[in-house]
Automatic annotation (TrEMBL):
UniProt cross-references to InterPro entries, sorted A to Z: DUF6495
Organism: Leptobacterium flavescens
Record-given protein name: Histidyl-tRNA synthetase
Length: 156
């Protein structure tokens, strides 16, 4: 398995897709029930293969990621060959970027001495999707790029 198995909730949400996945392998509902009972290891393998297929599809569409904490934000743009990073660090412990109030302060005070902005880039390993997945496992969320693009105009 390349990524992680989908959660029970994710499988429920993707129930129709999983049925279609089994159908592409000519596995009927009755056959699936039999496999689960008589060959649980095969059922586990099918769940893993389906999970990887879903992850591959999702990860192939990721353009931006965000990872925020109380005093920092890591904003990633996933280009064809590299990550581009804009990092924000707040040097005032009274400001919490995870609150609406703290984030609003940041928006209004982006040039304040307590705000540090950094940029960097890193070429992907041989597997871009796995690199993106690792960032998601570390807490990054898939984003629409609004914040990255706004800050990119400030730092460039």
């Amino acid at each position: 398995m390349k990524y992680t198995r989908l959660s029970k909730e994710q499988f429920k949400a993707l129930h129709k897709e999983f049925i279609n996945f089994l159908a592409t392998q000519s596995i009927t509902a009755a056959e699936w029930d039999t496999i689960k009972k008589e060959k649980p290891e095969v059922a586990e393998q099918e769940l893993d293969v389906f999970s990887d297929l879903i992850w591959e599809g999702v990860l192939s569409k990721v353009d931006f990621l965000e990872n925020s904490s109380e005093n920092s934000m890591l904003l990633f743009k996933c280009d064809a060959h590299q990550f581009n990073l804009i990092a924000v660090k707040i040097n005032n412990k009274d400001i919490n970027l995870l609150t609406d109030e703290g984030f609003h302060w940041f928006q209004e005070n982006i040039m304040h001495e307590d705000v540090e902005l950094f940029t960097a880039s890193k070429v992907y390993s041989e597997d871009k999707r796995l690199d993106i997945f690792k960032l998601i496992q570390q807490g990054a969320q898939i984003a629409d790029g609004t914040l990255f693009n706004a800050l990119d105009k400030v730092v460039n």
